[in-house]
Amino acid sequence: MIRILFIDPARSEEMFTGLVEEIGSIRSSRPFGSGTRFDVNARLVLQDTAIGDSIAVNGVCLTVVSFDQRVFQAEAVEETLRKSTLGDLRSGSPVNLERALRVGGKLGGHFVQGHVDFTARVLAIERRRESWMVEISFPPESSANIVAMGSIAVDGVSLTVAEKHASSFLVSVIPHTWENTLFSTYEKGKQVNIELDMLGKYVLNALRLEREPDISDARLRELGY
User: Fold this and answer.
1) Deepest in the core among 59, 119, 120, 134, taking most CB within 10 A?
2) Which pLDDT does position 105 carry in this prediction?
3) How far apart are alpha carbons 138 and 160 in whole angstroms?
4) What is the number of other CB atoms lying within 10 angstroms of the CB of residue 100?
5) Nearest by Cα to 68 from 80, 50, 95
C-alpha cells in the first residue's frame, strides 16, 4: 500500500516558490557566536517586510532580525554555513532573494523550503540558440531524488531537470531567468546550493516506511517525520 501525502502550505512552515524577486548584495558580514550575521542590500523584498519574516538568500531560508528601507540583517548558524555556500559570501557578493510565499499567493515555480540538501559544482555551461544549458554535479545518495523533467532548486531558482546522467544533471535556463538571477555570473567550477524537490522527498520517505513495518519513533525522526 502506498500512502498519499497532501501538504497544505498554509499549515506548514514558511515556503518559497523558487522565483527570484531580485538580486541583492552582501553589504557586510560578521561573526555571531559560531555563526554569521549578514547585512544584505535589497529593495523589492523589503516591501511589507517585518521582523521575523523569512527571506531566501541563494535558496537558504533566513529570518529577518532587523531592517531599514535598504538593508536587512539575517543570521546563519554554523550548521547552515556548513551545508550551504553562505559561508563563502563576502562584501559585494550578489545574492538571489525571494520573500516567503504568502497564503493565497501565486505558486509560479514549485514548493521550495529553503533547506539546502547539498552544495554542488557547475560542470559546464553551453550557450544554445534561445537558452543556456547548465550541467551540475550531484552526490550518489541523491540520485533517487533527481528525475528528468522533475523540479529542482539551484541557488533558490526553481528549474526543471532537462537531463539526468550518472552523477550530474542538466537544466535549461531561459533568457529571463539568466538575466534576473545569478546564473549570468556562473562559471565552470562555481559552487551552488541545491534543494531537491520536497514532494519527491516525502514520497521516497513514505515508500521506505512501507518497507519497514516495525518502525520505531527514532527511525521516524531520522526519516524526517
Assistant:
1) 59
2) 58
3) 15
4) 19
5) 50
